[in-house]
Each structure stands twice: as structure tokens, then as C-alpha cells.
Specification:
Layout (H helix, E strand, L loop, with lengths): L1 H10 L1 H26 L12 H18 L9 H14 L3 H14 L11 H22 L7 H14 L2
């Protein structure tokens, strides 16, 4: 059974990275409620918008593995698989923040403050830059609470997919 599951994972590396990213995000957002439950304070599920991290974790892992795994030859050797997997783990960190940002824009409109005295073109350019750069910054800062474990997990999955 384990060999069959590993063969299935090797045939579908993008799905494997996607499920790993979504599973990691699910474990990350459930950590605080489980700790509260174990401490005797009851279980309260995470707020609605935090579930977008699970969607973003899946999308980040899936899309980046689809883009990078074959192009960079991740299946070629265990060391290359480890490097490509680590890269997928690193670059997928901002994706949940993009999902969250899109949800905020859809639900509440533009979350960024207008620039005083700016023309509509400058305002649109400012909003676009903030829309693109804010999730990248949050993704970099996301390395701190996760202790870089998304990179390590991506490297581990890449190694497992590439080894003989």
C-alpha cells in the first residue's frame, strides 16, 4: 500500500505538493484551537477567513510544483528534488496571503488608504503595487512563525518524490 501511494504521488507531484501545502496550512490554523482544547478551555474553530490559508496553501503548492517541478528537473535526482521542493515551499508562502487579500477586496473593497493629493493613475499604480508586494512581505514574515518549516517540508516531499 505504501509503495502504491508513493508511486501515485510520483506520478502527480503537483497534487502531492498541493495536498502537503493545504495539510500544513490546516495543521497550522488548527494548532491554537487544539492547544486551547487540551488546556481545558474548549474547542473553538478558527475564524472564517483563516480557512483561506488552507485554500492558499493547496493552491500555492499545486501551482508552483506544476510550474517548477518539471522545468527544473525535480525528479532527476534526490538532491535536485530536495532543492526544487524547498523552492516550492519557499515561494508558496505568499500564495495564502494573495487568497486572503482577494477575499478582503471582494468582501470589503480596497483595503489600502488613498494617497493624499494623488491623481487617479498614481492611486491605481500605488494600489496595484501594494496588492502585489504586501503578500510577498507577509510571506517572508511568515517564515518566522512557521520557523521555515514550509521550506523544510517542501524539501522533504521533493526528496521523497525524487528518490529511487
Amino acid at each position: 500500500m505504501a509503495q502504491t501511494a508513493l508511486q501515485l504521488a510520483r506520478r502527480n507531484p503537483a497534487w502531492t505538493f498541493g495536498l502537503t501545502g493545504g495539510g500544513f496550512a490546516l495543521a497550522f490554523i488548527l494548532l491554537a484551537p487544539v492547544r486551547a482544547f487540551l488546556a481545558g478551555r474548549g474547542f473553538s474553530p478558527p475564524p472564517g477567513l483563516l480557512w483561506l490559508f488552507v485554500v492558499g496553501g493547496f493552491l500555492g503548492g499545486y501551482l508552483l510544483a506544476r510550474l517548477l517541478w518539471g522545468r527544473l528537473g525535480g525528479a532527476g535526482s534526490p538532491s535536485r528534488g530536495t532543492l526544487v521542493g524547498a523552492l516550492v515551499g519557499l515561494l508558496s508562502l505568499p500564495v495564502p496571503f494573495y487568497a486572503l487579500e482577494v477575499a478582503v477586496v471582494v468582501a470589503r473593497g480596497n483595503p489600502f488608504e488613498p494617497v493624499a493629493g494623488a491623481s487617479p493613475f498614481v492611486q491605481a499604480l500605488s494600489d496595484l503595487l501594494l496588492f502585489v508586494l504586501t503578500p510577498i512581505l507577509l510571506g517572508v514574515l511568515g517564515l518566522i512563525p512557521t520557523y521555515g518549516s514550509t521550506v523544510a517540508l517542501g524539501a522533504f516531499v521533493g526528496y521523497l518524490l525524487a528518490r529511487e
